[in-house]
Amino acid sequence: MSAWLESLQFVYAPQVVNGLSLGVAVILMALGLTIIFGLLDVINMAHGEFYALGAYLGTSLLLTGLSFWIVLVLVPLVMLPVGYATERLLIQRVFHHKDRHILTLLLTFGMAIVLEDVFKLIYGPNSLKPESPIEGATELLGMMFPTYRLFLMGVGLVIVAGVWWVVYRTRLGAIVRAAAYDRHMSASLGVPVLRVYAGTFAFGVALAGLAGVLLAPVYSVFPTMGKDFILMAFSVVIVGGLGSIKGAIVAGLLLTQVQALSSLYISPVWSDPLVFGIMVLVLMFRPQGLFGRLGHG
After folding, report:
1. Which of 43, 54, 207, 278 lies at a C-alpha separation of 20 to 30 Å from 63?
2. pLDDT tens for each residue of 170-196
3. Other CB atoms within 10 Å distance of the CB of residue 240
4. Residue of 38, 34, 33, 29 whose CA lies nearest to 294
5. How many CA atoms lie within 13 A of 283 on its CB side?
């Protein structure tokens, strides 16, 4: 019995916490992806690079001497106009084309390549590692956990709850869901659909930037970090259901726990293929994902 408790305390519990901390960050990215797809029907291939941009901006501001807590607020605010301008100046140019799904995918994929090269030109190929703003460990239920990872889970859950409240419990959220359900009817009722599109895209980009700032002290900052992270975020969106906020939350927690706990029994090299295998099974037996999409429940 004591051996089982020790395994629970020193082996499984730390992995669960690691999975939760990663899961919350993945959910922040997946929320942006799923909101953008649910409203605009746009698969944003540059979302990972916006995450990396947030991490690089945060790291640069930290090097100027600004407090991490100021940076945590400042970076999403900076990312908002970046996302708004991207949608209005680039996405809208091809959005109404008959082949818009392919064109927007290619456009955002091209943006991802350009941004990754810009990161390499400005910051170089080497990784950067901001200092953790919260050092040490905290004892919880007789177990020791890194304090910053506990903070990451707490603040992430607050943000996720805030996004859910805005989307499903406010007038602004009702406008967003109405535009997602029937853009033409919403426009006829006086909803500024184009501004709603741009604002929602900007909000998704800001969430990606926020995730970048939060994860930078844990996973470092490097030019290809967006490409590595976006695969997990897309898996979460597909398993949860394209456009489903509830699905992104459930799938994010599920897949990151599978990844964390499976690494105890199999080589970590196989963790990602395992997650992608789950995604393939979901696509085979439930192509729409676990839940519906924004504006449809």
Report:
1. 207
2. 888 888 888 877 788 888 888 888 898
3. 27
4. 38
5. 12
